[in-house]
Amino acid sequence: MCNSDVLVNNSPNAPMNLQRAKEKAFEIYSHFYPMERWLTVKGAEESLPLVAANVVNSTNSFSAGQLVYIYDGHWGMGETVKVVGRYRKKNRLIKGHVMIKNLISFRPKIIFNPAIIKKLEEEFIPSMLFAGFAYPDAPYRFKVCAELT
């Protein structure tokens, strides 16, 4: 698991870790987005590409340190992302919006959990969500975690 102190930009292994992040992002691009800009989630999917992150400050729905999965973003006004994760008071999945500044340790992941896939059924996942890993100079890039899982 990543912590806030271990980011690619601050790491002595920054070029190697950034290269691994690019490779993982391009792997996701080529497998899930061959000719499409959006991926429509269907209930029969076995795997799903998402961006994993950890919550820094507790919100009404998510605890600090909790793992959430980003499936879309609102760049510009508000700088929020749409996430799915476990509700802090009950053991159930919810969808919500979180400010990007309240998240750390962004990393591309392929999810195999059927409960998360079912929760995101009929949602659209943009391919540009992974552009921050493939193109680190992009304005909407995330801080990439040094440990990619």
Per DSSP E runs of 2 or more residues, the count of β-strands stands at 7
Number of helices: 3
Q: CATH homologous superfamily - what is it? A: SH3 Domains
Mean pLDDT: 75
Q: Could you say which overall geometry the principal axes of the C-alpha atoms support?
A: globular
Major sheet size, sense and barrel closure: 5 strands, antiparallel
- Using only C-alpha atoms, the radius of gyration works out to 15 Å
**What distance separates the N and C termini?**
8 Å
N-to-C SSE string, H for helix and E for strand = HEEEEEEHEH
Q: What is the SS-derived class?
A: alpha+beta
Widest sheet: strand ordering: 5-4-3-2-6
Please report which band the strand proportion falls in: under 5%, 5-15%, 15-25%, 25-35%, 35-45% or over 45%.
Answer: 25-35%
CATH class term:
Mainly Beta
Kindly identify the CATH topology: SH3 type barrels
Please identify, by name, the CATH architecture. Roll
* Helical residues, percent: 10-25%
Number of domains: 1
Compose a concise summary of this entry.
With 149 residues, the chain is an alpha+beta fold. It contains three helices and seven strands. The protein has a single domain (8-134), classed as SH3 Domains (SH3 type barrels).
